[in-house]
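Researcher: Here's a chain I'd like modeled. Treat it as a single chain, no partners, no ligands.
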Amino acid sequence: MGHYSLFSLLKNALTGNRHWTPAWRFPEPKARYDTVIVGGGGHGLSTAYYLAKEHGITNVAVVEKGYLGSGNVGRNTTIIRSNYLMPANTHFYEHSLKLWEGLEQDINYNAMVSQRGVLNLCHSDGQRDAYARRGNAMRLAGVDAELLDREQVRAMVPGLNMDNARFPIKGGLLQRRGGTVRHDAVAWGYARAADRRGVDLLQNTEVIGIRVEGGRVRGVETTRGFIAANRVGLACAGNTSRVAAMAGLRLPIESHVLQAFVSEGVKPMIDTVVTFGAGHFYVSQSDKGGLVFGGDIDGYNSYAQRGGMPIVRHVMEEALQLFPAMSRLRYLRQWGGIMDMSMDGSPIIDRTPIDGLFLNGGWCYGGFKATPASGWCFAHTIATGEPHRLNAGFRLDRFGTGRLVDEKGAGAQPNLH
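Model: Modeled as a single isolated chain. Structure tokens:
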């Protein structure tokens, strides 16, 4: 695989672009690997890459039932941020944001990382106090945060409904280092980088069973035959509970659909990410001009990559509360990702009771922005057999010990997170 650079771009441009090599190989499965990662999305691909880069483990296969990036990594609203309150989340997502900042140079791929800022609006005095508390906690942890007043918000986002809003805007919490990333480019970039380090990417290879003997994992049964492995890592997002059940595990995870929407392209309207504090709505503008936005999960359990009309209407109502001008726009497309909602709204990166079987799941709404740190921490856990300090709070047994990481304070109800 060639190295992308200005020189290679000019060389191929002058030769009619006929000599570009494939971004990654299409290998046949080997009989045995040191490690098999189930799931070819952002978390699975980043895990494979960091296993090879950070730990020198290159005899790795990523097994994906469809094509690379066909799941949630290509079905999200592209937002990255680290504006959390709970210490476990703050340090983990800040590490992820730092990895985002150097990602393109690290993997030699343009992932279109755009640190345009993330602005959380507040609509009451109590909410402003809560944002001040969160911002102070962030700054004490070394994370950037700014508390804006009403006029600063008006100057930053002129299109907001400031004067006749049903929920008056009192100010906002701004993280300037947050922003957006091109979601599918993340999958392509990590796939290419992992392949260059010797990882086998096995597409259209569905796992149909996990072989466990004597309390230890032995490998995975796939539609292309049995693949033996000493270690198996599950990074299956919304299908985590189904795949884990193949090994006899029942997890504290529910699957729900989260819808996202894209409008027709318009001239520059929003140059940051804006979230609605009186509801659950978030919006940014893509480089092609479309507004990318979303809201709550559909309340029912589902494994389908599509959602229902009640949430569509709910999201559109919230959009118009913030930006009345959006009423003139047509929305072009919609999709649904399957969210693996944990009981406390925070992820799980840990060993399982089965020796050699590791779990990366329960990402709820936060999976995309966690992609680099998730892979980095999961690779460490798989390679060493122990959690890193950054994911030590995301152990599986916290649901038995009561050491929950309940960022939202909604209790053990996945549909409320």
